[in-house]
Amino acid sequence: MAESESGQDKTEDPTEKKKKDAREKGEIARSKELNTVVVTLAGAGGLLVFGGGLAEVLMDIMRINFTLSRDTLIDERSMGTFLLASGKMALMALQPVLLVALIVAFIGPISLGGWLFAGGTLAPKFSRMNPLSGIKRMFSLNALTELLKALAKFFVILIVALVVLSSDRDDLLAIANEPLEQAIIHSVQVVGWSALWMAAGLLLIALVDVPLQLYQSHKKLLMTKQEVRDEYKNSEGKPEVKQRIRQLQREMSQRRMMAAIPDADVIITNPTHYAVALKYDPEKGNAPTLLAKGTDFLALKIREIANAHNIQVLESPELARSIFYSTELEEEIPAGLYLAVAQVLAYVYQIRQHRAGKGKAPEPLKDLPIPPELRRDS
């Protein structure tokens, strides 16, 4: 079915935030079949590697417990002593196999999905105590999948066990005719190889279950188009809020710009559409800096402030447009405009000298040298 306008169909891949939130909740792909396979393989492998030593310890246990003296047999307290000693010997013999299985039991789960500890999953969920929800889970697609996997494991293990027992029939029959010590070692080897082959048979189930778990986990995290839009709004901010923030930033920038105009040396205008305010500090020796710029109403306000503070206002449409488009606030003018602005500042200086009665009135400014690449027609 095509996606509706409200975006109810989950057709979008999960975002990184969605994946992160799911991981924090413990909702990641896990395969119980993979864990079972690796632990069983490790146990069978450990039995094959350490089986010889285990068989020798078993023989020692039998030798000790089957060669008891008459005094020991009639002493009731000796039963506990021998039982404790036998258990300790058996535990020490099984320790390498159990240690390998324990290590793999930790490695197996993190092989798919990585290491994760989600404390929230330990909290009780009363929704799981709802009988109706339990019945619904019993007859869900997931329950049917688990049932099919259980049946598949049963038949796979059954078939592998029959094949292994059939192939080991001669060895099993030969054990009855072997000396006791050799028979025990041989039995441990047969059990180890049988367990290893049955665990290898479970690999078929794991090879199907792992992709299935990855697919189900990805499908569970799919999002609707509306969810993607909502998440973007929540993470990036609503458009109207962002617009309001930008508006406030512009207003604050304009207030700072207007406050800097009284420090300007000259205002260059278009004469009505553009206005730029320049400041030159000869002590620093840098190029002139743009203190303010604006168009239309803002340009009018710049001229009003300049007139209120007796700042020289000059009309030079080409230079005003060039500075406006090539220079940002509080930046120096580009090198291509140095000569033109220098002529403007010299002209302003001559006017100041004339007004102070120290020189004659300067002639009007002629065409200023503006590079073609910095010219703007409008």
UniProtKB/TrEMBL annotation:
It is a multi-pass membrane protein. Keywords: Bacterial flagellum biogenesis, Bacterial flagellum protein export, Cell membrane, Cell projection, Cilium, Flagellum, Membrane, Protein transport, Transmembrane, Transmembrane helix, Transport. Its main location: membrane. Gene3D superfamilies: 6.10.250.2080, secretion proteins EscU (3.40.1690.10). The chain crosses the membrane at residues 34-55, 97-118, 139-165, 195-215. Residues 1-26, 359-378 are annotated as: Disordered. It is found in: Cell membrane. Residues 7-26 have a biased composition (Basic and acidic residues). The keyword Protein biosynthesis does not apply. Required for formation of the rod structure in the basal body of the flagellar apparatus. Together with FliI and FliH, may constitute the export apparatus of flagellin. PANTHER family: FLAGELLAR BIOSYNTHETIC PROTEIN FLHB. Belongs to the type III secretion exporter family. This is Flagellar biosynthetic protein FlhB.
